[in-house]
Amino acid sequence: MIPESAVQKFRESLRGQTFCPSEAGYDAARTVPNAMIDRRPAVIARCSGAADVIACVRFAREHDALVAVRGGGHSVAGKSVCDNGLMIDLSAMKGIRVDPVRRTVRAEAGLKLGEFDRETQAFGLATTLGLVPNTGISGLTLGGGFGNLMAKYGLALDNLIGVDVVTADGGLITANASENEDLFWGVRGSSGNLGIVTSLEYRLHEVGPVVGGAVLYPVAKTKEVLNFCREYAQSLPDEIVIQGGGFSTPEGVPVFAVAACYCGSSPSEGEKLLQPLRNFGPPIADMISETTYLQMQSFFEPFFPPGRHTYVKSNFLRALSDEAIATMAKWAGTSPSPTTFAPFVEHWHGAATRVAVTDTAFPHRQNSWNFMAWSTWSNPADSDKNIQWTRQIWDAMSPFLIDGSYVNYVSDEGDSFARAAYGPNYDRLVALKNKYDPTNFFRMNHNIKPSQAATA
Ligand SMILES: Cc1cc2nc3c(=O)[nH]c(=O)nc-3n(C[C@H](O)[C@H](O)[C@H](O)COP(=O)(O)OP(=O)(O)OC[C@H]3O[C@@H](n4cnc5c(N)ncnc54)[C@H](O)[C@@H]3O)c2cc1C
User: Is residue 455 over pLDDT 60?
Assistant: First the structure.
């Protein structure tokens, strides 16, 4: 328990708002989009800038308080909110400045993808971010960052030029290719383990208009669609990113959809390259068209409203083999919830897969297909059956999956999961954890344990 007088003094020292239990705004501030997560921090500090973040770290250290860091709050594992302890909420830190001449942007850590894209698109520029505008840029980038531009320009973290980081001792340092290079290597993939990133600088690229959307097929065609995707993906240029998955339309019709985006400079060429997706079939709905990049980035938003219960299992396939396809076809359309996306596959290729495994802390550069069972439902009484179904499809798919997942996509899986998720970069990350966070102060994440703390 932190003495009330110390909490009071701390609150008065900050420029940003704070919330304690039973106060107005507390419940809204502790709520994250995944309704499965219901945690109650002792104090929530909505920081106004790096000075508040530094004050939070020093306060938590002094009182030995557990710390959770919230960017956009989209971690399905709920890592951005803790019971008791201090929730360091960055969501009010939304400063952003685009340099259209250098094609760079400096963005504060509380921005969401939609807010970031809007500012950069004012100059016809963009960088790789994810597919749902409400997701936070910082959690997404620090863990990886798959999105429509990743085959052309790399993952979100591949576009980072540098970051400002508040470290576990309460100092603020810059990490980039020439300052604190070891930390810069580590923050690109270690998902908040090494410190609190207060601002991020990214490279930007000329983007838009794009050609994209989705085509829907009857769920009974899942096997044929996945077979087609495997063939089609073999010759895809870097300008195109595709994904496919089972879900139900708002009318309750189970379908298997393929979503695609072409981000190159010639929309007519994009139309031509995407034509095979529409010719195969015929689809029961065709929503692919030339559109703005901002519209494309909002395409999936209606499918992921906040407040649903969410449970996710995900990992890369060794290959999109006949057996893996047959298993997915068997499970497609069987989820107990019409809002679930599963089975689902993302195709990873191009620039994101041309980076060496050890060039950044993010290790997943070699496998082309990422499998997901992204289960969501509205009624808490349905939790057991949906979690059980997700685990069953996961067990069925397990023989086809590698060890170690993409940290951004999974519900909490514990220590052995975290070790496998960082792959061959794990030992180097432990050495960085020993250097920058030897007491494991930052542990509300897919945690890399410092060796001292592990021994203790
Ligand atoms: C609906 C939905 C759609 C998604 N779509 C995509 C997608 O298209 N592509 C993709 O790659 N991923 C996607 N994701 C996964 C997403 O990248 C992760 O959930 C990511 O962690 C979200 O970041 P956040 O800042 O919103 O989350 P938060 O929950 O705030 O943070 C996630 C983790 O990062 C840490 N963290 C956050 N900000 C900081 C910071 N500034 N400094 C240090 N640590 C920090 C937190 O402590 C926590 O451990 C999606 C998730 C959801 C729920």
Answer: no
